[in-house]
Every structure is written in C-alpha cells, then in structure tokens.
Amino acid sequence: MVEKIIREGSWICPNCQTKNRGAKETCDACGAVRGNVQFLYEEDGQVVTDAAERAKATAGPDWICAFCGNSNAFDRPTCQSCSAARSEGTLRQVKEATVKGGEGLARRQVSPHATVAPDVRIEPVKVPLPLWFKAGCVIAVLGLLALVGLQSLSFEDTMTVVGKEWRRAIQVMQYQTCREGAWRGELPAGAREIRRQEKIRSYRDVLIGYQTVEETYTERQQVGTRKVKKGVRDLGNGRFEEIWDDEPIYRDVQKTRTVQKPQYRKEPVYDTWIEFDIDRWKDIEKAVAQGTTDEPRWPETGAAAHPRDIVGEKREGAREETYKVTFKSDKDGKTYVVDKLGHQPLSYEAFRRLQPGDHHKVIISGLGLVKDIPGLQPSSR
C-alpha cells in the first residue's frame, strides 16, 4: 500500500549560514527573510503530523517576489517584505528531491513514522585480499612488464656463422587394403563386405511401472512486508513528501510431497555391424634427411613418380623442413642458435646465404634473442 509522509526539511541562511527549519520564514539567528534559498531534505527531519501544518505543506509551493526576491507562503496574497502582489511572483518548482547518498539511502527499509530514522543501511562485506596475494600480483605484473621492456630493446652485434644444421622429411603413404567396420547404412563407397553380425548399438528406456516416493522441494513463500521508500518530492515550501510502499518479503521453505515416480529399465537396441575391406592411402613411414654443411636435399622415398590407386603403390605426402644456424659473437664469444627470425621459421633462402665463416650484423633483444639479421649480407672484417 502506497503511503505518503510529510517531513520537514531545512534551509541555510545566505546571510549568516545558520541552518533553519524548513517551515521557518525568517532566520533564527539574524532575522533575515528566507528568500529564494534551496531547501534541504533531511532524512531524520521532523514528521509533520499536525493537520494544520500538513494542510500548509500540501497547499502548494512558495512563491518568489519579482521585486525583492523574498520567499512567501503559497496562500500569502502579497509579499511579506515589499507588499508586491502575488500575481507578479513566480512559484517554486515542485520536483524530485536530491537525496544525499543516492538510491541506497533513498530505499531505507525503516518505519516512515520514526522522527529519527535509525541507520539500517546494509553495507556489503569487503573481504581484504591477503598481503601475499597482493605482493604476488605486483611481482607478476612487474615481471611481465620487465620481460616486455627487455624484448622491446634492441642491440646490434657483429657475429660469425660457426655452424649449420638442417632437416627435411617427407611423409610416405601406401595404397593398402584395410579391414574396417561400420553400421548398416554407413558403409563408405568402395567397401567390400566381409561379414555381418547383430550388435548392441544403443539403449532405450522402457517404462515398467511407477513407484510411490516422498520428494523434497523448495517453495518460495511470502512471510511479510516491509516499508520501502520509493521517492522524495520537494514541495517547494520547506517540506518534503516521501513516498513509501509495501514490498513483500520472501523466504524459501522446504516441503515434501508424495509423487508417483516412473521406473524404467534399459533395453538394448540392436543393429547390423558390417566388417568390410576397402582400399585406402595410409601413412606408413616418414623419410628423413639431415645434415650440417652439405646442401639440404629431400630424402629418397621409393614412391612412384606418378602413383596410381593400386595396392602396394607408394606416394609422397606432406613435406616439412627446418633450418638452424649457430652464430658466435665477435665481441664476447657468446653463441646464439637461430631457427626463426621474428615469428617466422628460418627459410631455406636465408639458410643458404648464411655460410660458415661469414660475418653478419645481428640485432639482439634485451632477452638475448636474435630479432633480425638485416639484409643477410656478409660484412667485411
């Protein structure tokens, strides 16, 4: 049920900065007329219960004199300061009030009739992170930043090629007769059936009856209501109107009930399993060739130059190649093994141009990794 509560606000005298009750038309300290001040909503302000005072609060907003700027009650026909007519003045705006603390305070769940609202705001519990966890995170972040920083640094060095290594491989395939199996209707093209047999392919649930059982379930029940502040309106005369509404309170209740629970048995589902022969290309081995100073070459595979789909015939499949070059720094004698430049594997062309005894300018990262070999052109001593 929606309920409206009238609560008195306050205002601050612009002349002496004294805070006064909202209904006061003159300052308690210096006697200055209220004027066009801003009304402040007070959550613990006095609830207006007197019928006459409530009538004044709801009669309408104050009006501001167009000549002297003083504030006057809604029903005053002339300005209390300069006697100017009310018709020349401007009514204050009735508007939503600004509530200190935002929505969390605006929805306090307390009695709206309390003259002083107790502080019942529920703050979330903040569990502090352990010191070791914070320290570990800081160290990890600093370490990552250090690695990124070092990798981004670049140093130039002159190095000599002192070693090379290469490896090439070819996958060898053979056309073979393979014994395989599949369910009826799933045989591949070219399959030659050998035998059939009935096998369990899956299971299905078969209803065999019902059993009376007690089961527990959770039911959400309303156990009461609470008053919740939905909003606050500035009435423009030193009072504020709070809108409260009933909000249901729920809790989960454990209950039991008697039900008929179906009972099932697993029943096998049979299908025809077919064994068959089929001719396919199969991987049988990998031919490898490797070396150091000699020219890289592809290994012999024994595969036919123009392979046909004939049992026993061989053909070549996927190829792979890796190249490594070892450098030695002319400055400190440190060695570096290079198998990639940047994010790309070292190419055959680069490997071919890096000959033992050649000197090259090499770019090194702060982590000691070779980043680039500019131009791959040998330099003179």
Automatic annotation (TrEMBL):
SMART domains: ZnF_RBZ. Keywords: Metal-binding, Zinc, Zinc-finger. The keyword Transmembrane helix does not apply. The keyword Zinc-finger applies. Signal peptide: none annotated. Residues 7-36, 58-88 form the RanBP2-type domain. This is RanBP2-type domain-containing protein.
